[in-house]
Specification:
Number of helices of chain A: 24
Number of strands of chain B: 2
Strand order of the largest sheet of chain A: 10-7-11-6-12
Mean pLDDT of chain A: 91
Strand order of the largest sheet of chain B: 1-2
CATH superfamily of the largest domain in chain A: Periplasmic binding protein-like II
Oligomer: heterodimer
CATH architecture of one domain in chain B: Orthogonal Bundle
Largest interface: A-B, 42 and 39 residues
Shape of chain A: globular
Mean pLDDT of chain B: 85
Strand content of chain B: under 5%
Number of strands of chain A: 13
Helix content of chain B: 55-70%
Helix content of chain A: 40-55%
CATH class of one domain in chain B: Mainly Alpha
Largest sheet of chain A: 5 strands, mixed
Shape of chain B: flat
CATH topology of the largest domain in chain A: D-Maltodextrin-Binding Protein, domain 2
Chain lengths: ~525, ~300
């Protein structure tokens, strides 16, 4: 039992991590732990509220108050942080632009509380799952931790209608499928009333080219250049033939096959209803939606059709590149929960204590057990899986995640966590920048032109244009990392890639990665 | 009861007339003006001055900041996407003013010729309570290149080949502005202005043998000039700051063809590049000031000028 929210401290621990007697008020902007209602609801507290009231009884010195702050609006949240009126918790992705470089820049700029002391005091790292820790670059810089993990997004992939695949006589995809396979599936599943695949507006740039390691800031596109002021240059033209193959395939799917449902307004939220309404047979979306029972996603489609979800909806990680490259888009994504940088130590202790109780210890078990008892549905107990914590079972619930979601889906998650998530993350090797540098707008522009512009598009010219713009923009920035540190970090980063590809994709390693590494990267870093 | 602030004429011994504003009326004048001035200084001028100062630093929400001089200005000046966004903004502004500002003038004039009942039904359309979000969802559906209503009209009714609508860099700005045409713009303000024109002017013109278009040119438009001048000023400023609609609908795509200056500025803030975003905002401010100043000098409001 945790007394007063802080575990018993080993001798010699810093006195200022104790908060037993300090009066603490946590300001909450509705997420992730809304305060209890002023009056007990008619039917009594729900599972979450029962767990929260249990923690509050254990921590009588802590009060929780609701505040109105737009924590999902980056401008509103930044204003609150700057003005000292931020709530206790917020999602760091909102101010870090949902990418590692942005998150780390936000940490360096002091926009998020340093939680290293609390991580030690509550032994958070020991309780986190390996999959959670694989995303460490999202919530830490070196030994300093800046966020806790409420949810894990185990990676992006493609949802597909199992029943429609079977009707069309198609085999279910495996982890080794490619986008050429996707094209065949999409074509076979397209009818007058239905398209084969729904994709976000950024699908070509992110999913298809990402599968080959091309475009944006990906492996073959962002090259270390310590001689420049920003330390990086962009190259979108050396692998022109590969770009053309991918882009022309996508355009054939869109304009010839007519198998893609996508336009410039397509977003995560707009394509999911298309899948739910059976306007498409496949959709690209994050895997975490497979395990949500309370959103209008695959689970509700199965309910609509009156069949078990396992019969209707399948999920597979993103296809590999034709060159054998694994799509890093299927890596674990962890949007960390950050805390107000103005919190006093005792307030941080209380905030992390609440998190520890609710997500890693008895509060989590209590909430999930009560949800299971209320619904009788194991999916409610194992909702939003995988868990951030290492413990994979729920006290008082007889069943496992495999029983809830099916062994097939868990096998895909294991692959994404065990193989794809080991894809080396730059943020773990190269010291972070204080500013993010040039935006990716120039790349987004050409990617959307390739995706949607009718008629003929001059791929080579547009790629050259994007490359020139990004390099011209980069010339206006100066890196905050010394050349020495950059070279050391980048060298370690590419050596990690060298080891990774040799292990997980030997053909890709021999035919594509290693020749490129020797001819482009090693000379650039003086290796 | 306050004294009137009307100046009191005083006849001097030499015969010249002078005025004397009473002390009390001067106090009243400043008492009424002071809150407005303070408001304008606090919420208008002060943020602008601070923004300019921040644009000369490595601005950040927390922590110490350093003076960096014109570094941010240099960076955005040398950024090709800055000039692309200005170009998009200029095209958007010109199209927007022509389509959603000029056209309503003539529509308002024509509406005034209709029967009052017909006019009331037409005006009812413009007061439909459509929320911002439902409007967005509606127009996304209408423009969808695969199953949208407009595509159905284009292909099945008009027999045209499939149209890209928002997916084409050539067409995207037009289709973003199109809903504004239907919403009638400042047309209601024009109608209010037209109703203020004495009917005797038109009767006199008819007696003189003036045609319908002659009456519009010599009576309606000159009488609307002050209203047009004011609303055009706001239209210029507003269209050069276009953000909400293109941001929600297209995010600046395809190919950056719908990315306005404010959208680009917003993306910089989202990337924690506060100084660069602020510098771009200052640059936009200067451009708007110049354009508005030129316009105000060229366009006189006096209908009798």
């Amino acid at each position: 039992m945790i007394a007063a929210g802080v575990p018993a401290m080993a001798a010699g621990s810093a006195a200022n991590t104790r908060a037993q007697n300090a009066e603490v008020t946590l300001l909450i902007a509705g997420w992730p732990y809304p305060p209890l209602p002023a009056e007990t609801p008619e039917g009594g507290y729900d599972a979450y509220q029962q767990a929260l009231s249990m923690w509050l009884e254990q921590n009588p010195n802590v009060r929780m108050e609701s505040v109105e702050v737009g924590i999902w609006d980056s401008a509103a949240l930044l204003t609150a942080i700057a003005g000292g009126t931020a709530p206790a918790y917020f999602s760091t992705g909102v101010i870090g632009n949902w990418n590692v470089a942005g998150l780390q820049a936000a940490y360096l700029q002091g926009l998020v509380a340093n939680l290293s002391e609390q991580f030690d005091a509550f032994a958070i790292d020991d309780k986190l799952s390996e999959i959670a820790k694989s995303g460490r670059a999202n919530y830490a810089i070196g030994d300093d931790e800046y966020g806790v993990i409420n949810e894990i997004a185990p990676g992006n992939g493609i949802y597909y209608r199992r029943d429609l695949l079977a009707e069309a006589g198609l085999e279910e995809p495996t982890v080794d499928w490619t986008w050429d396979d996707v094209r065949e599936y999409a074509r076979a599943l397209t009818t007058d009333a239905r398209k084969g695949l729904a994709m976000q507006s950024y699908g070509l740039g992110s999913w298809e080219l990402g599968a080959e390691g091309l475009g944006g800031d990906r492996l073959f596109s962002r090259i270390p250049d310590p001689s420049s002021s920003w330390n990086w240059r962009w190259d979108y033209t050396t692998q022109l033939a590969d770009y053309e193959a991918v882009i022309n395939r996508h355009r054939a799917m869109a304009f010839e096959d007519g198998s893609i449902l996508s336009d410039v307004t397509s977003s995560d939220g707009s394509i999911a209803p298309q899948f739910l309404n059976q306007e498409v047979a496949m959709m690209t979306n994050p895997s975490q939606f497979y395990t949500r029972a309370s959103d209008p996603w695959p689970y509700m489609l199965a309910q609509q059709l009156g069949k078990p979800m396992e019969e209707i909806v399948g999920f597979m990680s993103h296809p590999r590149g034709v060159n054998g490259h694994l799509s890093p888009e299927s890596r674990v994504v962890i949007p960390p929960t950050g805390m107000n940088p103005d919190l006093r130590t005792e307030e941080k202790n209380a905030a992390v204590s609440l998190y520890n109780f609710m997500e890693l210890e008895e509060g989590f078990d209590l909430r999930r057990r009560l949800a299971y008892e209320e619904s009788g549905d194991l999916k409610r107990a194992f909702e939003i899986y995988p868990f951030p914590r290492a413990k994979d079972t729920i006290d008082g619930v007889d069943g496992t995640a495999a029983d809830a979601w099916g062994a097939d889906f868990l096998a895909v998650l294991d692959y994404m966590a065990g193989v794809i998530s080991r894809y080396p993350e730059l943020g773990l090797f190269v010291p972070p920048e204080e500013t993010v540098g040039p935006t990716g707008a120039a790349w987004d522009d050409v990617a959307s032109t390739f995706s949607f512009e009718p008629g003929t598009v001059d791929i080579a010219t547009l790629l050259q244009q994007a490359q020139d713009i990004r390099n011209q923009q980069a010339a206006g920035f100066t890196s905050s990392v010394s050349d020495e540190d950059f070279i050391a970090g980048a060298t370690a980063y590419y050596q990690a890639h060298d080891a990774y590809w040799a292990e997980v994709a030997p053909d890709f390693y021999e035919n594509t990665f290693r020749p490129w590494y020797e001819s482009v990267i090693m000379p650039a870093l003086g290796m | 009861m306050a004294q009137e602030t009307v100046p009191v004429p005083i006849q001097s011994p030499a015969g010249a007339v002078t005025t004397q504003v009473t002390h009390r009326s001067r106090v009243e004048k400043w008492a009424f003006l002071t809150p407005a001035i303070l408001f304008q200084l606090s919420w208008g001028w002060y943020p602008m001055v601070v923004a300019f100062i921040l644009s000369l630093t490595d601005a950040r929400p927390r922590g110490p900041i350093s003076f960096t001089g014109l570094q941010s200005y240099q960076r955005i000046w040398n950024d090709p996407l800055t000039w692309q966004s200005f170009q998009v903004t200029a095209i958007y502004a010109v199209m927007s003013i022509i389509l959603t500002f000029m056209i309503p003038i003539f529509v308002a004039i024509l509406l005034m010729e209709m029967k009052p009942r017909t006019m009331r039904w037409m005006m009812l359309l413009w007061f439909l309570p459509l929320s911002g979000i439902s409007t967005t969802i509606l127009w996304r559906y209408l423009y969808n290149a695969q199953y949208g209503l407009f595509q159905y009209i284009a292909t099945d009714i008009l027999g045209l080949p499939p149209q890209p609508f928002l997916n084409s860099s050539d067409q995207v700005l037009f289709w973003l502005i199109f809903p504004g045409i239907l919403l009638f713009g400042p047309g209601l303000i024009y109608m209010a202005g037209l109703q203020g024109i004495p009917q005797s002017y038109y009767e006199a013109a008819e007696v003189e043998g003036a045609s319908f278009f002659r009456k519009i040119w010599t009576i309606s438009l000159p009488r609307l000039r002050p209203i047009i001048s004011m609303t055009l000023t706001f239209a210029i400023i507003g269209s050069l700051q276009a953000f909400d609609w293109p941001q929600i609908m297209t995010g600046g795509q395809p190919g950056g063809a719908s990315r306005t200056v404010v959208m680009y500025l917003y993306s910089m803030l989202g990337s924690l590049r506060y100084a660069d975003g602020t510098a771009l905002a200052i640059l936009l401010f200067l451009v708007i000031m110049v354009i508005t100043t030129i316009y105000r000098r060229v366009f006189r409001e006096d209908p009798d000028a």
